[in-house]
Design goal:
The chain is α+β, with helices and mostly antiparallel strands. The chain is built from three helices and ten strands. The protein has helices spanning 43-50, 54-63, 80-90; strands spanning 6-8, 13-14, 19-20, 23-24, 29-30, 36-37, 40-42, 70-72, 75-79, 91-93.
Length: 95
């Protein structure tokens, strides 16, 4: 039985937006003033969410096929909202 999800336009499958490494993609916290803060994923988390290796993630980034990353020192980070937007723009419903 196929699980519901999305399919990349190039035919690859992506998991449903939701749980990633034990907590929701859209998990957020609030700052002292009660403003919601967007969840930030590191390279390992984003690669695991897509079900690909870090090497494959870096290759996609090099091709310009990923949402914009935030550089924190030598590390890359992505916001959950940018990932969701990217997925919505680059996926179509599975059949």
């Amino acid at each position: 039985m196929n699980s519901p999800g999305k399919t990349l336009r190039n035919g690859g499958a992506l998991p449903m937006v939701g749980s990633i490494l034990g907590y929701g993609l859209h998990s957020s916290t609030t700052d002292r003033e009660g403003v919601a803060l967007d969840r930030i994923l590191n390279t390992e988390e984003f690669a695991a969410y897509l079900g690909i290796s870090r090497t494959a993630l870096y290759a996609l980034k090099h091709k310009g096929a990923l949402p914009p990353a935030i550089r924190v020192g030598a590390s890359l980070r992505w916001t959950a909202s940018s990932i969701e937007k990217w997925m919505n723009e680059n996926t179509e419903p599975s059949q």
